[in-house]
Amino acid sequence: MLIRYKKAFEKIAMGLLSFMPNEKDLKKLQSTMKQYEMSDQYQLFLWKEEDIIGLIGVVFLEDDLIEIQHISVNPSHRHQGIGKTMVKALKELLPDKKLQANNETAEFIEKCDVDESIQGKE
Questions:
Q1: pTM above 0.90?
Q2: Could you tell me which InterPro entries the record lists for this protein (predicted)?
Q3: CATH placement of domain 2-112
């Protein structure tokens, strides 16, 4: 189930974000978390089954366009379709929005083959 990020989940979210290649540096990671917490344009969603095992971070670019900034799944839960399921759940949560990948998430989103309306960075 996709849930919105709350401050109480900060350590879990930081741990999941740290699996992203460009979020390995602690200062960069802290800056990214602050951006999600402080800006209304940036939203972080967590994937919860029994535990929180994944996250997807987005930025609202225009009224109908959302860019997927981050997508991460706990390594022990990878290759089970969770990332793809998170993207589908996001699409269902925001049905009137177009989803777009950024440079970091484009390759994964293409592999998901979720929907033609989700496109790579132009």
A1: no
A2: Acyl_CoA_acyltransferase, GNAT_dom
A3: 3.40.630.30
